[in-house]
């Protein structure tokens, strides 16, 4: 008899229903977990730091529920790498990351980690932040590269408060290029270069390297700045200065203790170092600029020039400088040796020109007009060195008593000869090659030049009347058929006589003029047919 089969169809049906139910349950759970209503199951992470943080700032990480610290710490990573450790509160809802060293100013970092809550629901977090940069110089002065005043202050403006930074300002005259090269050759290698020990208190380092008094606060002066990564300009001369800040510590004024030097290039360097007790603080050069000071005052011209002889006893000198000067300063800076009363006048149209006029110099005397160093210009510069104009006065007769000759080698060395040098405006009379006397002359002016060559005395007159110019020519000796004479300073019919101040200057109509005294001497010396040589 056949037995009935029970349970086999119902088993498969039950299994099928069970699988359907599991699938629906998984689907509903998945949908639920991905719906907004499941947000409360996911751990939320926030950071108690601004987008830009200080180089040594701690980073606070907040969790909205308790998490498992070991899982977070295992994956916690900051890129670029920053060494430090996480410290947790008791309920494990907050972690504080404390860096061991300071972070690089201006560097961008990414925090990334994974974790699980206490109910083992996983989560992850990413956070990006930028470390605050060193203060940057946004404005500075002097702006112009040249012509800076000697009492100029240095103004520097920063883009942020420098309260958290120690700053150094290095001002001075750079070493010449050749000296720089020598210094570079002697500089030790990186391994040999002394560095700041990060373990030493910064204020102790500061005391070792301080070299000037500052107005409001002590500023770190890094003697090792030259070995820093950015380097420092080697200085031939360092400028000491006082420092004053504004309340926000964003603007600083450097005031040199002594006036700057003329015509010098100055270098200004700004160094920054973050104030911290952590390791890794470095000196950074954040700005450098340069400027040049004013050119000194120069005496560029005098008339007459220095070194001349036979200067008139009433000669007025014109002094020309390369820029405007202070008139009162010139009065104080000018002197005459040997002492002589004088008047000082100033040009009405040019503020760089003065006129020196003596009451009267002595004849045949060496003089020196001295302009002392320190004469002030209107732009703030000054005369760096004493300037002297040396000269010798002549005499009214035109006698030359200092050994000068019209020539050292007369063309004619036998008998009597009159030698005339148109360049030096001198005449020397020779006998048998020996000079008997030298005298200043006045030859023909431009356009009426005295002819050069060898001539002879054609005739002599003690007092010749010139019909062409209607004047008397004492002690005249004609030497060309065109009417050229050697004669004393001419006289007009009204009694006026040509002044001796023209001797030494070519102003005649072509004749050779001599002073009172020398004209008679030469007239008595010469005879008709005495040779005359005229040259430059």
Main sheet overview: 9 strands, mixed
Question: Strand sequence of the main sheet, in spatial order?
Answer: 27-32-24-25-26-31-30-29-28
Task: Supply the number of helical segments.
Answer: 6
Number of strands: 32
- Low-pLDDT sequence parts: 1-7, 182-229
Short description:
The protein has 536 residues and is mainly beta. The protein is 12% helix and 35% strand. The protein has helices at 8-33, 69-75, 177-186, 202-209, 327-333, 518-525; strands spanning 45-47, 52-53, 59-63, 77-79, 84-88, 94-99, 108-116, 122-131, 137-141, 154-158, 165-174, 235-238, 241-245, 251-256, 265-274, 284-292, 299-303, 317-321, 334-337, 342-346, 353-358, 366-371, 387-392, 416-421, 426-431, 434-442, 453-456, 459-466, 471-478, 485-488, 512-514, 531-535.
Question: Any descriptors?
Answer:
single chain; 536 residues; mainly beta; 9-stranded mixed sheet; 4-stranded antiparallel sheet; 6 helices; 32 strands; disordered N terminus
């Amino acid at each position: 008899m056949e037995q009935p089969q029970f349970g086999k169809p119902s088993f498969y049906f039950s299994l099928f229903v069970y699988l359907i139910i599991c699938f629906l349950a998984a689907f509903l759970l998945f949908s639920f977990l991905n719906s907004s209503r499941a947000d409360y199951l996911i751990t939320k992470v926030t950071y108690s730091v601004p987008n830009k943080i200080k180089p040594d700032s701690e980073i606070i990480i907040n969790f909205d529920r308790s998490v498992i610290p070991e899982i977070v710490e295992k994956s916690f990573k900051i890129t670029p790498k920053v060494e430090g450790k996480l410290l947790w509160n008791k309920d494990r809802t907050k972690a504080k990351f404390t860096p061991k060293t300071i972070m690089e100013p201006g560097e961008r970092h990414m925090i990334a980690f994974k974790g699980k809550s206490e109910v083992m629901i996983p989560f992850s977090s990413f956070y990006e932040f930028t470390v605050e940069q060193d203060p940057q110089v946004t404005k500075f002065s002097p702006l112009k590269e040249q012509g800076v005043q000697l009492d100029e202050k240095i103004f520097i403006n920063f883009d942020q408060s420098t309260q958290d930074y120690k700053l150094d300002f290095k001002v001075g005259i750079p070493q010449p290029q050749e000296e720089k090269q020598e210094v570079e050759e002697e500089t030790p290698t990186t391994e040999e270069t002394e560095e700041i020990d990060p373990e030493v208190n910064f204020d102790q380092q500061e005391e070792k390297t301080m070299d000037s008094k500052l107005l409001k606060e002590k500023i770190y002066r890094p003697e090792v700045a030259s070995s820093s990564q950015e380097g420092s300009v080697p200085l031939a001369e360092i400028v000491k200065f006082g420092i004053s800040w504004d309340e926000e510590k964003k603007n600083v004024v450097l005031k040199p203790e002594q006036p700057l030097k003329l015509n010098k290039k100055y270098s200004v360097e700004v160094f920054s170092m973050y104030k911290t007790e952590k390791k890794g603080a470095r000196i950074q050069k954040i700005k450098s600029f340069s400027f040049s000071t004013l050119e000194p005052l120069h005496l560029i011209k005098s008339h007459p020039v220095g070194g001349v002889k036979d200067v008139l006893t009433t000669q007025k000198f014109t002094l020309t400088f390369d820029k405007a000067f202070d008139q009162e300063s010139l009065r104080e800076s000018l002197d005459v040796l040997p002492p002589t009363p004088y008047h000082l006048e100033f040009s009405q149209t040019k503020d760089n020109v003065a006129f020196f006029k003596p009451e009267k110099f002595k004849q045949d005397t060496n003089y020196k007009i001295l302009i002392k160093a320190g004469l002030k210009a209107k732009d703030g510069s000054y005369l760096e060195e004493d300037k002297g104009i040396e000269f010798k006065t002549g005499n009214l007769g035109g006698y030359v008593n200092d050994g000068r000759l019209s020539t050292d080698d007369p063309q004619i060395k036998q008998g009597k000869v009159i030698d005339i040098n148109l360049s030096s405006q001198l005449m020397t009379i020779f006998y048998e090659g020996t000079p008997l006397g030298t005298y200043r002359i006045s030859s023909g002016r431009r356009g009426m030049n005295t002819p050069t060559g060898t001539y002879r005395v054609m005739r002599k007159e003690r007092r010749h009347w010139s019909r062409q110019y209607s004047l008397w020519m004492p002690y005249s000796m004609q030497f060309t058929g065109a009417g050229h004479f050697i004669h004393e300073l001419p006289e007009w019919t009204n009694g006026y006589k040509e002044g001796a101040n023209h001797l030494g200057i070519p102003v005649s109509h072509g004749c050779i003029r001599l002073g009172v005294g020398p004209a008679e001497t030469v007239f008595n010396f010469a005879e008709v047919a005495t040779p005359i040589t005229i040259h430059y």
